[in-house]
Amino acid sequence: MKTIPLNTRKKKKTHYLQDELIRMIKHDPTVLGFLQKACLDGVWYWDLMNPEHEWMDPTFWRELGYNPSEMPHSPSAWQDIIHPDDLKTTIDNFHKHLENPEEKFDQVVRYIHKDGSTVYMRCRGMALRDDYGKPMRMLGAHMNITPLMEASNQLQEANDALKLKNKELEHFSYIASHDLQEPLNTITMFVDLIKMEYDKRIDEDCDRYLGYISDSVDRMKLLVTSLLDFSRLGHEAQIVQVDCNKLMDEVISDLDNQIKESNAKITYKKLPVIRAYETELRLLFQNLVGNAIKFQKPDTAPEIEINAILKDGWTFSVKDNGIGIPQKDLHNVFGIFHRLHKLKKYEGTGIGLAHCKKVVNMHNGDIWIQSEIDQGSTFYFNINV
């Protein structure tokens, strides 16, 4: 069948600047050279009617450590140095594009440098067809993306290692928590047995000592349960639309007893609707508001104000008029089991703010504090899902 020359196809009207640029490229080799150096790492042009002939830009060979004058203008030249695992995919994509123009010829392939190292090239091409759609030529370009791919691979390896460490840590927390429960239950059982068996023979001191043991066991159980809850936080969580005003209504309902006992005043309005992990976000607000109620100044009713502004995602603030936090402790309070006050004065496990930090991290955000002793604290956090 007689083929139609490429230049006989009916051309669409083009912008005069495009025509001018094409003429400059045609008549001034320095223009083509500039475009190649600025945008690409090698242009190639393949005669599909004589497939053993393919012109490869010298830049391509230099990127791979070869002397361009020693390399033939033949497809076999690059096929001999492409990574064996990538050759079949490249050829398959090439034929798919020839059969169907909608199938893009665009992939990342690995070449073997002359020194034996791996070079990642983005290879793109476009078949030039006659009026009947038959491929006549193939025009393409290479771009060396090795630094980008190496950085991406390193990041992926770091992410995989981090996921593995997190999984191991969560598994350890889960196993440790369960293993610790058993001896605690055994201690509780024997304390109860001693009280039953020796009830009439236990004096006041012994009864007090047994009480100390029971109280310590109960605190340890609470710590173990808190550790287990911390390790489970975020498991199987899903991002959904959350109305923060409704969420705060639920938090206020959950804290109803503490609010009434302390005569706390809590204000919030016009909080946003955001995408978030709903259960975890609720725990975050509950911990912060609960702490604001707990750490109140003597003879002063807690006043808590919650606001949000559109900055770095959504940035929330929870402000109180409580006892405040020393400046030296502002960066330490988010550590697990970190306590600033004695247990007798303020109950708790010291894990609540660690929960808060973990929840905020799940939402790609940060959490920080501004505080002064006896002037209150403001907790800030942003949600950026």
Task: Offer a concise description of the structure.
The protein is an alpha+beta fold and 385 residues long.
Write the layout of secondary structure elements.
Layout: H1 16-27, H2 29-39, E1 43-47, E2 54-56, H3 58-63, H4 75-79, H5 84-99, E3 105-112, E4 118-129, E5 135-144, H6 146-197, H7 204-232, E6 239-243, H8 244-254, H9 256-262, E7 265-268, E8 273-277, H10 278-294, E9 303-310, E10 314-319, H11 352-362, E11 367-372, E12 376-383
Parallel strand pairs: 7-9
Antiparallel strand pairs: 1-2, 1-5, 3-4, 4-5, 6-8, 9-10, 10-12, 11-12
Helix pairs in contact: 1-2, 6-7, 8-10, 10-11
Describe the 3D structure.
The structure is a single chain. By secondary structure, this protein is of the alpha+beta class. It has 3 domains: 6-144, PAS domain (Beta-Lactamase), CATH 3.30.450; 151-232, Orthogonal Bundle (Helix Hairpins), CATH 1.10.287; 235-385, Histidine kinase-like ATPase, C-terminal domain (Heat Shock Protein 90, 2-Layer Sandwich). The chain is 46% helix and 21% strand. It is built from 11 helices and 12 strands. The strands form 3 sheets. The chain has a 5-stranded antiparallel beta sheet, with helices on both faces. Strands 7-9-10-12-11 form a 5-stranded mixed beta sheet, with helices on one face. The protein has a two-stranded antiparallel ribbon with strand order 6-8. Strand 3 (105-112) and strand 4 form a beta hairpin. Helix 10 runs antiparallel to helix 11. It starts with 15 loop residues before the first helix and ends with a strand.
